[in-house]
Amino acid sequence: MKTPKKRGRKTLVLDWDLIASLAQIQCTSDEIAFICKVTTQTLRNHSVKAQECTLEDFLEANRQGGKVSLRRLQWDSANGKEGVLLRDDDGKLIFDDKGKPCWKYLPVAPNASMQIFLGKNWLGQTDKVATELTGKDRGPVQHSWVDLLKVADGNTDTSKTDSR
User: Fold this and answer.
1) 92 CA to centre of own chain
2) What is the pTM of this model?
3) Is residue 1's pLDDT more than 80?
């Protein structure tokens, strides 16, 4: 006797760890659906069942973790960070086949551009340049209404002024 064939679709199994990792690098729900080879609506439906929350809530929670990681990297880049050499269980340095020590974490030199970026975005610092206009002998700028009217009309030659 033949065994009856199963009917219906195969059960869809989504890799929620992969989806969380993709959200951490700020992928959109459409991009995640493309990578998982499903529709965005399928992701939404399965999120409620598997994660007991909406897809948007799940992605937003994981995106926050990605932002924290990015912030940590920015601070490390701005401040610089000492490298850490790789050691064995006895505390001895581990060397590669060329005799160079292996790094657990590479050192990062301080980055002035990142310091400026963080200062502008988080501390409200700006690149304001003070400009002062002065006239003859560093005195006030002298002008007449005629000069201003000529400039307003598009005539920038104010060397010849009318005497009104």
Assistant:
1) 38
2) 0.54
3) no
